[in-house]
């Protein structure tokens, strides 16, 4: 295996922050660099990644795999017309597809890991629900997108909060231990830093376990739709705030400028990186992709 | 307590490594303050307003401790005693944006993605590539140093540092202080440190009067006069100057470079005594090392200059005459010599030794470690204008009405004790310079 972290997840707490546009363009750039890339639309229920590549109704989708009409996920991967880049669409799904069971998620991830590809990008649906959180945690490397707006940043923290505590719950034996904890220790608004301090009083070994669990957990931060210079400082600001509040050393990956060319490209149903290859957003997305690549190379 | 902020050292609070210099402390301070500001997008949903207030207070405390050398030393000593110093060594590794080298190596990876898929990549390779740790450790880095963004940045900072060091040295040496005056001034340390001198006002006043008397005694034929006189061209001028000097020597003292605030007070005192201050002549008298052409430019006599400039000026004249003689005939255009772009000659301002010069403001700003962009951001005075103020560029300075307001804001921003005095001092200097130019 060449990259230590093969599966990347792109998520955001709020809709319209540009997950689909950014993940499509990232995949294009990776394919361009020579990585065999698979883009997976796990925004089940509202899948529209295929539209980004100008595809009509796709002939196969991940639903076929979930409902076991096929055994191998490779069979639902569609050619995009771009060398090295394949797409697994999420369209054509039944009404209840948005809720995938845990076992099915495990199966998807297992198959993606063994798939013949260098990199897999998951385009995760909006929102802070169990589905998104589990998929995000299943990936090897995650990036959270926000825009410089209060609602977007709030939801960013909300999602990160959920992800954090879900990751804690994944520690073997945690569920049993959790029942012994006082109730107010783990409510929805607990500050992770405070949680750690409280945990220290209950049992030092558990605190160490949590810290160890979070040691290499460093989702990336991407700030999209940056207008002003001060917006560019939002990424480092969030990084610093997260370091204090979540006790997480996240990686600030970069910001993407707000530009009408993105909107034009979406209307043309093409990835920005292909439609406006030399625009500022394209340049930024390339930089972010390379930043994620260099993190993927880092030994965990 | 505030979650996430318990038991942090000041270094951790500012998110810097313990060996950071003042520059890093300053930058980190701005960054942390921006993050936990009242309007900060990044932190308002995590911490309540009171918590952020407390954080900001902590940050201020940390900043003022670390930026002050003595306080910082004490603090580090205290940390070492508590054996907490080592803990903070593990500062965050800032994420390094990809450099051209890095990119280059990434391309190599992508090739190998197919060719050497089954081969083990060497350990060293794996560790070396992503965590770029400076050009020294990487062999490739040396070759491509020129093209790497990082080394440019480093060089730039190094340059800046050396520059500012030079500036500081200059500042320590002080601008131009007369031997004569130095002798006349007691105590000696007041002359060296204008900022310190600004502390005690009563002493100053007493000292000022003292000085004035002493200066009076030493007026006649000091070394200043003798030094200055050989540089004058005309006999008449020389005698005039000498006469003026003798008369105005004491009045000239307010514009000495020592103890800024003192000289302003002296000037005020002099005015209160009803004495007339002839700035122009006083400045002339104070100057011993002005090149001749500066004086000749100010005097009525035609410029008698030596060297290249004078020759080219003559050429210019001749060219002009020719043009007049032969009309606008294109054939003669090549014989028309235009004045060459004059070299940056020293302006009278270089020799003015009054208080609150642009250089003084610059020194104050630089010793506080504030760069022009920050000053721009906070004062809302545009950078070119700040530069003009500091360089005393008469052409680029705005109208006096605006300039006064800006100086007031700037002086307040720099935390100078008496902003009004700064404005007065600076404007006096400016007016003197303009008189000189006329």
Give the structure's gist in a few sentences.
The complex is a heterodimer of chains A (300) and B (438). In chain A, 46% of the residues lie in helices and 15% in strands.
Write the layout of secondary structure elements.
The complex is a heterodimer of chains A (300) and B (438).
Chain A: E1 7-11, H1 19-33, E2 37-42, H2 49-52, H3 62-66, E3 77-79, E4 85-88, H4 102-114, E5 119-124, H5 130-138, E6 141-146, H6 150-169, H7 174-178, H8 192-202, H9 204-215, E7 220-226, H10 229-232, H11 234-245, E8 251-257, H12 260-267, H13 272-275, H14 280-296
Parallel strand pairs in A: 1-5, 1-6, 2-4, 2-5, 6-7, 7-8
Antiparallel strand pairs in A: 3-4
Helix pairs in contact in A: 1-14, 4-5, 5-6, 8-9
Chain B: H1 10-14, H2 22-35, H3 49-67, H4 69-81, H5 100-115, H6 123-128, H7 139-143, H8 149-173, H9 179-184, H10 188-192, H11 194-197, H12 201-217, H13 223-228, H14 235-252, H15 260-272, H16 279-286, H17 292-298, H18 307-326, H19 358-367, H20 372-379, H21 383-391, H22 400-413, H23 419-437
Oligomeric category = heterodimer
Which whole number gives the mean pLDDT of chain B?
60
- The structural domain count of chain A equals 1
CATH class of chain A: Alpha Beta
Helical region count of chain B? Answer: 23
The share of residues in extended strands of chain A comes to 5-15%
Task: Briefly note the structural class of the backbone of chain B.
Answer: mainly alpha
CATH topology of chain A: Rossmann fold
Interface with most residues = A-B, 41 and 39 residues
Radius of gyration of chain A: 19 Å
> What is the CA-CA span between the terminal residues of chain A?
14 Å
What is the topology, as strand order, of the major beta sheet of chain A?
A: 3-4-2-5-1-6-7-8
What's the gyration radius of chain B in Å?
A: 30 Å
Low-confidence stretches of chain A: none
Major sheet summary line of chain B: none
How much of the residues of chain B is beta strand, in percent? under 5%
Mean pLDDT of chain A: 87
């Amino acid at each position: 295996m060449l990259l230590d972290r093969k599966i990347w997840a792109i998520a955001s707490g709020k809709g319209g922050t540009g997950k689909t546009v950014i993940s499509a363009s990232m995949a294009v750039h990776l394919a361009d660099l020579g990585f065999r890339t698979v883009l997976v639309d796990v925004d089940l229920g509202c899948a529209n990644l295929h539209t980004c590549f100008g595809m009509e109704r796709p002939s196969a989708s991940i639903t076929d795999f979930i409902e076991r009409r096929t055994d191998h996920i490779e069979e639902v991967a569609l050619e995009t017309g771009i060398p090295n880049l394949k797409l697994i669409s999420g369209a054509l799904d039944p009404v209840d597809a948005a809720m995938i069971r845990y076992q099915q998620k495990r199966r998807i991830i297992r198959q993606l890991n063994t798939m013949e590809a260098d990199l897999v990008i998951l385009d995760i649906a909006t929102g802070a629900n169990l589905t998104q959180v589990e998929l995000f945690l299943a990936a090897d490397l995650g990036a959270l997108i926000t825009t410089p707006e209060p609602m977007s940043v709030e939801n960013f923290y909300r999602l990160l909060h959920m992800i954090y505590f879900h990751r804690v719950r994944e520690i073997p034996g945690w569920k049993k231990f959790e029942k012994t904890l006082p109730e107010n220790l783990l409510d929805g608004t607990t500050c992770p830093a405070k949680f750690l301090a409280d945990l220290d009083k209950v049992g030092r070994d558990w605190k160490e376990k949590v810290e160890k669990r979070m040691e290499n957990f460093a989702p990336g931060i991407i700030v999209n739709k940056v207008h002003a210079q001060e917006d560019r400082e939002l990424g480092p600001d969030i990084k610093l705030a997260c370091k204090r509040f979540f006790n997480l050393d996240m990686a600030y990956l970069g910001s993407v400028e707000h530009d009408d060319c993105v909107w034009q490209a979406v209307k043309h149903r093409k990835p920005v990186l292909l439609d406006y290859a030399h625009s500022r957003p394209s340049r930024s997305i390339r930089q972010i992709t390379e930043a994620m690549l260099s993190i993927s190379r880092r030994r965990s | 307590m505030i979650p996430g902020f318990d038991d942090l050292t000041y270094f951790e609070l500012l998110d810097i490594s313990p060996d950071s210099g003042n520059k890093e402390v300053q930058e980190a301070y701005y960054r942390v303050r921006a993050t936990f500001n009242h309007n900060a997008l990044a932190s308002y949903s995590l911490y309540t307003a009171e918590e952020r207030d407390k954080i900001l207070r902590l940050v201020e405390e940390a900043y003022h401790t670390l930026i002050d050398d003595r306080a910082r030393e004490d603090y580090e000593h205290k940390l070492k005693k508590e054996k907490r110093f080592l803990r903070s060594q593990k500062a965050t590794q800032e994420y390094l944006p990809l450099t051209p080298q890095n990119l280059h190596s990434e391309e190599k990876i992508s090739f190998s993605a197919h060719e050497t898929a089954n081969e083990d990549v060497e350990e060293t390779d794996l560790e070396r590539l992503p965590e770029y740790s400076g050009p020294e450790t990487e062999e490739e880095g040396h070759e491509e140093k020129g093209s790497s963004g990082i080394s440019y940045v480093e060089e730039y900072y190094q340059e800046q540092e050396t520059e500012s060091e030079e500036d500081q040295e200059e500042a320590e040496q002080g601008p131009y202080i007369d031997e004569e005056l130095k002798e006349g001034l007691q105590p000696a340390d007041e002359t060296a440190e204008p900022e310190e001198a600004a502390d005690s006002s009563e002493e100053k006043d007493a000292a000022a009067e003292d000085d004035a008397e002493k200066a009076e005694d030493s007026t006649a034929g000091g070394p200043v006069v003798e030094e200055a006189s050989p540089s004058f061209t005309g006999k008449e001028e020389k005698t005039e100057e000498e006469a003026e000097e003798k008369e105005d020597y004491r009045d000239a003292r307010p514009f000495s470079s020592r103890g800024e605030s003192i000289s302003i007070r002296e000037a005020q005192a002099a005015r209160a005594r009803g004495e007339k201050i002839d700035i122009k002549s006083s400045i002339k008298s104070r100057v011993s090392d002005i090149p001749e052409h500066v004086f000749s430019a100010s005097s009525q006599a035609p410029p008698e200059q030596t060297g290249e400039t004078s020759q080219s000026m003559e050429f210019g004249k001749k060219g002009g005459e020719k043009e007049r003689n032969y009309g606008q005939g294109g054939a003669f255009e090549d014989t028309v010599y235009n004045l060459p772009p004059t070299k940056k000659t020293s302006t009278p301002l270089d020799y003015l030794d009054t208080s609150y010069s642009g250089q003084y403001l610059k020194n104050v700003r630089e010793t506080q470690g504030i760069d022009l962009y920050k000053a721009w951001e906070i004062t809302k005075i545009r950078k070119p204008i700040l530069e003009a103020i500091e360089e005393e560029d008469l052409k680029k300075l705005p109208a006096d009405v605006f300039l006064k307001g800006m100086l007031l804001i700037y002086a307040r921003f720099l935390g100078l004790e008496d902003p009004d005095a700064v404005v007065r001092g600076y404007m006096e200097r400016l007016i003197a310079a303009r008189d000189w130019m006329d």
